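Explain this protein:
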Amino acid sequence: MYGKVFDQIYKSTVAECWQALVTFQQFIVLADSDGIVDMTPSSISRTTNIPIEIIEEGIAKLEEKDPQSRSPLEDGRRIIRLDEHRDWGWKLVNHAYYRGLRTREDKKEADRIRIAEKRKKGKENIGVADCRPESQPVAEVAHTDTEALRSSSKEKQVKESFPEWWPTEAWEAFVESRKKLRKPLTAVAIKRLVNKLTEANAEAALWASVENGWSGVFPEKADEASKRSGKSLSAPDRVRKACGLPPAGRVT
């Protein structure tokens, strides 16, 4: 079992109740790859060696609505029941989102360590490098490292180019949607979108692409689709859809 705990947990309202904080940490560790903890409170208590009364108090707090939560999903609840007919077994509401963050951060850390090790080896072998031509494998490593640094720099420049009104929530959902379509955005494509969209149409156009599975963003097409359907998903349900969760009111 393994689960990464982000420091946001200590800055959220969960930290105001130490029983909820401790219980939530155990849920993160015990959850499977889908964010499911299909255990009874007594089973969690036996597994973690935490008194049952602390686990039960923590669960009750985590199941409550929280209007101050960063996430609009499930009205701010941190966990939801798997089935209505039983009082045990839960799903972590934001598991998919934080699992994606963990994967990206782990990759960045692995790349940082790899590049640092290559640079260290390069300094140790500098005398040898001066005496003979650079080998092809070393050249390929240097090329890869340079490309990684350029990519990181470009990503930072793109983020800095976003205007103040840029709809962050809709944008992140669209980026995830493109990844699911196996069409990740390039720096050039992102800049074109920033120049193409306006404060008046950006959010609606991005959400329309997420809802309809479009790889592109089409303000006029999004407006027509909205008029034909006569309705659109609410912001919370849009986030749920982007994270692979069912609409509000349904429990899986």
Q: What stands out?
A: The mean pLDDT is 76. The chain is about 60% helix and 5% strand. The beta strands are 36-37, 79-81, 90-92. Residues 97-160 form one domain.
